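Researcher: We're teaching a course module on how sequence relates to structure. For the next exercise, students receive a sequence and then see the predicted structure as tokens, so they can try to spot secondary structure elements on their own. Here is the exercise chain.
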Amino acid sequence: MENKTMSRRGFIKTATAAAGAAGMAMFGASSVGSFLTSCTTTKEHFDTIIANGVVYCGDGKAPLTNAMVGIKDGKIVEIGKLGNLKNLAEHCNKVIDAEGNAVSPGFIDIHSHTDTNLLVAPVGDSKIYQGVTTDIGGNCGDSPFPYSDEYFASKQGTLRHGFPFWKDLDGFYDALRAKKIGINYKTYTGQGQLRSAVVGDNAVKATPEQMKKMIEILDAEMGMGSLGLSCGLEYAPGSYASNDEITELLKVVAKHNGLFAIHMRNEDDHVEEAIAEAIDLARKSGVRLQISHLKAQNAANWHKGPNMLKLIEEAKAEGIDIAFDRYPYIAFSTGMNCFVPLDMRQGSMEEVQARIRNPRTEKIIAEYADSRLKRLGGPQNVLIAACDKPENAMFSGKNVAECCELTGLEPWPMIKKILLSEYYLQMVGFAMKDENVQMFLAHELGMPASDGSVYSPEGPLSQEIPHPRSYGTFPRFFGKYIREDKICDLQTAIYKCTALPASRIGLKDRGLLLPGYAADITIFNPNTIAEASTYQQPHQYSPGIEHVIVNGVHTLEKGKFLGEFGGMIV
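Model: And here is the predicted structure for the students to work with:
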């Protein structure tokens, strides 16, 4: 294919080329807004000009046609009819021909678990190749900081991903800056990790001294640039905190105008009660609330979707600052240890495995696991991810029913075998209804998010079998839910991926295409964008992402990494 990114001397197209054919054919267009530059000549020197695209500013309004985007020093400086493109090309370093495709703000993944994977794959491979320019980590109560004084002391002199072992957010951010990254990044402080560092991993009440220390640490982390606090109340040890304990921490977040992201205490049989609990935490603390990956899990709960939205709408009407995110899949991903009851998960891995081996406690765990499997619809709905140990390789990528056939074991003995061998093994569970996914994503307070991480088809991360959402969330959202299912128009869909998440996390200069804003830009073909990643073969990039620019750095072109890193801590 002809390379459509040309040097200033080699660019021969003019501004009167037929811009917008691909995007307008399906979604329509509008004239340039009054706030934009509309001039016939300019002496401004641009680093980059984007021409011949359909410009969606990210505000949910109809796109601009015959508009160009001028970029200088990492910022958008002008948008509109900048003049004769052939003449303009003499005054810029690069012209990108958008070829009639959608020119959008870079996508923002508001809920990810990228974290230290970005030190392994610093380009941000699986994210940037789906158009993501900003990734928000530290979700579900888990972040790669803070650590206790004792644990940090035990790691002195050691390296983590090639950098001195860090204790807090400053140290983690320093490692990312030193590594150089291809996408922008920001993170929450995980409440589970915070509690582990101060209280430990057991189901005990925090003492007044421990409570004071957690508050002090969180306040310091917020001062270092933490986005807020995330909870994973289905996980140990975060779930062992009382609501009073969580409320006191959230008051710290509210003081800093941060955001509270909650993986709720329950997402199936008691999901409505869990939503009410999350809202009450926000009400008592005054914090802004982001409900993570909203879902009604298991067939017996699918009918609850409309009432779940009603509860959220009522909270919004009450004055609570609330929104939610949702990945565009019917399958979730978590650890295989979810088949162990929460009260049996406290302590170290060795302690949990001892309970699995103990005949008395194993009986309790087995009953819980069998009940959970039944609610999920059976062992065929649980897919095992990549196993690390060679003797378990035959189970990688197979569901539990298939593993039972291979071994002759019943479901619980099969799960027990896995947990005793690879306790932290990941799984995928097929437990949701597509009509609910559509309803949640279409809602005005809903936005797509991956709940995944950065992976790469190359290097150590290629050995994993992640949920396909790590590669395909945004292409699937645009391909299936917008182009095929038509849950909303394209400009609204782009708003849900850009300005809406930017407003939630407080990014003042991203999420929109406006003069003065950071030049985070994704150019994609609305007619061909689609997910390529699958559950069996997830390490596949999606078609339809034509160009990605991060802070003015042209990073991706036609599926090729151009060798420059434009990401930063935001």
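Model: If you want an answer key for the exercise: The mean pLDDT is 92. The two ends are 35 Å apart (CA to CA).
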